[in-house]
Design goal:
CATH class: Alpha Beta
Number of helices: 6
Shape: globular
CATH topology: Rossmann fold
Largest sheet: 3 strands, parallel
Order of helices and strands: HEHEHHHHE
CATH superfamily: NAD(P)-binding Rossmann-like Domain
Oligomer: single chain
Number of strands: 3
Strand order of the largest sheet: 1-2-3
Distance between the termini: 23 Å
Radius of gyration: 17 Å
Number of domains: 1
Strand content: 5-15%
C-alpha cells in the first residue's frame, strides 16, 4: 500500500506489484492447492485481507480494489467448493499496534507520533488499536474442524470500526 497515492499517480510497476501480491497470488495458490485439497477433503482456507475492501479510503484506490478482490474471490470459492467439503473464509483486522503502523502512517522507520495513534484510536469505536493478540486466534478458529459449518464469512477484527 502507498499512503496518499490514489488513482492516476500510481505507476504501472506499482500497480503490477500490487495486483501480483494481492490478486494473482491467490489465483496461483488456488489453482495449485484446490485440486490437491479436493483429494484430501475436508479442508479450510483462511485468507487475511484489509478493511480497505469494506471501508475504502480515497487515497488508496488500487490497494482498496485489490483487497476487495481478495474478499470477493474468497467468497466466490466458498459455495463453489462447499460440496467438496472445502471451506473458504477471510478475516480483516483494522489498524494494529504492529511494526507496520509507521508505514501506514506514512513515516517509515520513524516512531508513529502520539497524535497519529490517538486519531487512529478515536476512529475505532472500542477506543484502541488492534493488538496482535486480538488477531491471533481468528485463523485457528476458522481453520478448526469444530468450525466446519462456517464458510464464506468475513470476520472483522476492528473494534466495530466498519459497522
Amino acid at each position: 500500500s502507498w499512503p496518499n497515492k490514489s488513482g492516476i499517480v500510481v505507476t504501472d510497476e506499482e500497480s503490477e506489484r500490487l495486483f501480483n501480491v494481492n490478486i494473482r497470488s491467490i489465483y496461483i495458490a488456488s489453482k495449485i492447492l484446490i485440486p490437491e485439497k479436493r483429494k484430501d477433503s475436508p479442508g479450510s482456507t483462511v485468507v487475511i485481507f484489509s478493511e480497505n475492501a469494506i471501508r475504502p479510503g480515497a487515497t488508496q484506490t488500487w490497494y482498496n480494489a485489490t483487497k476487495a478482490g481478495v474478499s470477493s474471490a474468497t467468497k466466490s470459492m466458498a459455495p463453489k467448493f462447499a460440496r467438496d467439503q472445502l471451506r473458504f473464509n477471510t478475516y480483516c483486522p483494522t489498524s494494529g499496534n504492529t511494526p507496520l503502523l509507521d508505514k501506514f502512517a506514512g513515516i517509515p522507520n520513524s516512531p508513529v507520533p502520539a497524535e497519529t495513534i490517538k486519531a487512529k484510536c478515536e476512529a475505532i469505536p472500542i477506543g484502541r488499536l488492534v493488538e496482535p493478540s486480538d488477531v491471533a486466534n481468528v485463523a485457528p478458529f476458522l481453520a478448526d474442524p469444530a468450525s466446519s459449518i462456517i464458510s464464506g464469512v468475513e470476520i472483522l477484527v476492528d473494534g466495530a470500526r466498519c459497522v
